[in-house]
Write a structure and sequence with these properties.
Chain lengths: 454, 454
């Protein structure tokens, strides 16, 4: 909301949010789209987004504009709704694919506060759409404001809500779904949705931003554009993460939801496939190149008659622990004692824990045996992340397998953790242990390729 | 030890272990080095290592050799000792650099048992030297058999023993030290030695193998050759890991001990620098190429008068825990209650834990505040591994820093864990918290370079 002074100036000129305007100020001409004003109480400032992606704020005092003109109406052609509004189609571009955009929060919906310098989260995701009006020419987009949560605060309850909404969207005619999400735990959510959603009618594309939207280096707009392209036309009916493929701003990767991992704290190309290749590469121009071995959507099947379902039961009493030098095996007993039904161990190398150490207090074997014996599902993954665990090479791993630990092939530790929560939510412990090392949603591959490494 | 039948045959021919022999059997000629026989009770078999790296076993029964001849004496020129033997110099190549080889166990000292198919560990590390006699032409090597432990079973007590022996070796005239070690926790040990050892007179080169020594694809011999080259002539007086740089068998990398990580369960080039580049590249021919920004040994300083010391005190009551969706913050209270003095949290993204979640049972903030308030040092790293944590960008991280958590820059979680154990072993908690985010042994860099990523 702009200040009264600015609002009345804009009203006189017939300028609305999103319109393209030209502004003569500070002895220069500024041309771009009028942005919404994020904070009401910080003075008389007009904010426009320049074509180079940067936002500038032009004050009404010292450097007041000597002229301000509207060049073009807002080109936003998308319809908006929020969680409480009806889902009735208000699409303007009637012939284009219907894409549901589920907004959950995160950096893609964050902005720098021009007064405090801090980052705050948008309360109205529609603001996001004002900044990328070109989305309207790609698809007919319905925005739903599900929640505004930083992804590190997301829990399985949010996964369930998202899964339900994705299923609803497909069953109400969406061709694809885009989910905007914080990047911190995006790969946990992508894994959860991969397991929970059945009979997808189209792609579920999770995207976000590593830099907030008013930084010149922001990746959010491009990620969103590539994601909507893929939701509208991509032929892989799976859950995946769509983020920058490298730092060139030329393409995004679509990475399988159970094979993706955030591998860098700040780079725009932080998301990488682990023990996999990207399933597709999407250019900013909408071009899509597919990897050789992906399931392409079965068009023979009558998608209209399919019903997407969300199998959302989840057991949160699953732990993820790391075995390492001097790690205390009592952690297994601690979680068993708290009623935990599953524990994923990030072992070393091929999936080892200290089990032949001469130092008794560090020996994990007895604790693993006791927990497994009492029905706790113990899964073994590797903290190496890349590669596959194997209980057949060294004695220590064979001892662990004999004690009842389940070796999880080439599954990422985080994915095994999410999968075990999903399995224990839907099945008994014995069945869950049986299904843990069996591929359900692309999380396990039979054979590793040589180029699946950093 | 060979069977009596084989032993007497070899004695008649004047053939000893390590000699080059030719054997006519099964209608073919086999030429190679005579290997020691690993297991006494498994029949009359002669084992020779062919020039292609494979071992073959020739039985004395059906396919008995029709001829066996010695071609050349063993070319092993190194001296051997074991932990109980005296350290007196028995070096044959008097002019070459003295390199101490500390044997601790692991795959590099393992072999497939020809009877059971399992992998077992050598009890006599000298056997390793028989297989790589060319080491003797690179340096004058003294082998010490410190222990035979799989690296997943190693604890801080083994780190202390290794550190003491490294210091002793330098103070007794070694130019460099090579440590053979299992690969699973090699990077934990390299970090521990980096912190424990002061005033190194030369390189401490940790090496091992991803494949056991009688597999054709074994990497151990080449890793050992490159490591001895670097210990004998390398000019970086630091602890580092020397393993395959890629899969070409052409060179090894020397990676700083506090910046290395095993990133693949089985590849020979599994070890990668994280938030760093390799310090040097060592060709199998002994060529050494240095990275641009390494400390080259100060030759002006009189190394002879220096004394290498091992600051070996270590506090094992430090935990390494991961924050993730639905992770239970009670884990902080659990470790505090057990008398743990430090906890390293592998946070998400820039170093976050769930601290603004609406689900109270998953909120980590109060537990962090309580533990930090009672003197437990809480360090924050990122499970992304690559990149740097930062408490200034998002509110959740600011809340955590305000609660007393220490942000650990671009330190790997495992390295922060080892460092905190080292600091708490040597300093009070306040001093340890102060030193945790300060560079001591190359574990923290001021600035990240663009190419420091996968």
């Amino acid at each position: 909301m702009y200040s009264e002074k600015v609002s009345s100036l804009l009203a006189r000129k017939g300028i609305k949010i999103g319109d393209r305007i030209r502004l003569n100020a500070r002895g220069s001409m500024f041309e771009g789209r009028l942005m919404p004003r994020p904070d009401a109480g910080s003075g008389d400032v007009i904010i426009i987004k320049l074509d180079n992606g940067y936002n500038v704020g032009i004050g009404m005092e010292g450097d007041a504009p000597v002229a301000i003109d509207k060049l073009q109406d807002s080109v936003i052609t998308t319809s908006f709704s929020n969680a409480s509004a009806s889902r009735s189609a208000k699409n303007i571009a009637a012939n284009s694919a219907k894409v549901e955009l589920l907004y959950t929060g995160g950096t893609i919906g964050s902005k720098v506060d021009y007064v405090t310098g801090g980052v705050y989260m948008l309360t109205k995701p529609e603001e996001l759409m004002y900044e990328v009006p070109e989305l309207g020419s790609i698809a007919s987009i319905n925005v739903r404001h599900l929640m505004s949560v930083a992804s590190e605060d997301i829990s399985y309850r949010e996964w369930q809500a998202i899964a339900r909404n994705v299923a609803d969207a497909f069953n109400c005619g969406a061709r694809g779904v885009v989910i905007t999400h914080g990047t911190d735990t995006m790969h946990y959510t992508s894994a959860a949705l991969s397991f929970m959603l059945k009979d997808l009618k189209g792609p579920v594309v999770i995207t976000g931003a590593q830099r907030s939207s008013d930084r010149g280096s922001s990746d959010g707009f491009m990620n969103l554009i590539c994601s909507v392209h893929f939701a509208a036309r991509g032929t892989i009916p799976e859950v995946g993460i769509c983020m920058h493929g490298d730092t060139s701003d030329e393409y995004c990767n679509f990475i399988r939801g159970t094979k993706a991992r955030k591998m860098h704290t700040s780079r725009r190309d932080a998301f990488r496939p682990v023990n996999s290749t990207p399933l597709a590469r999407i250019g900013t121009d909408g071009s899509i190149a597919y990897s050789n071995d992906v399931t392409v959507q079965n068009n023979a099947k009558d998608i209209k008659d399919m019903k997407t379902t969300a199998k959302e039961a989840f057991e949160p009493k699953v732990a993820l622990v790391k075995a390492h030098p001097d790690s205390d095996p009592d952690i297994i007993r601690y979680y068993s004692g708290k009623g935990y039904r599953g524990i994923i161990i990030e072992g070393t190398g091929l999936g080892h824990a200290p089990v032949s150490t001469p130092h008794k207090e560090y020996n994990w074997l007895e604790n693993i045996k006791q927990a497994a014996g009492s029905g706790v599902v113990i899964g073994i993954t590797s903290q190496c992340l890349y590669g596959r665990v194997d209980s057949s090479v060294y004695r220590n791993a064979r001892l662990m397998a004999d004690a009842g630990a389940v070796y999880c092939e080439d599954m990422l530790p985080e994915v095994a953790y999410v999968k075990l929560g999903f399995l224990l939510g839907n099945y008994g412990s014995e069945e869950a242990a049986k299904l843990l090392p069996v591929n359900i949603a692309g999380e396990i591959t039979k054979r590793s390729e040589v180029d699946w490494f950093v």
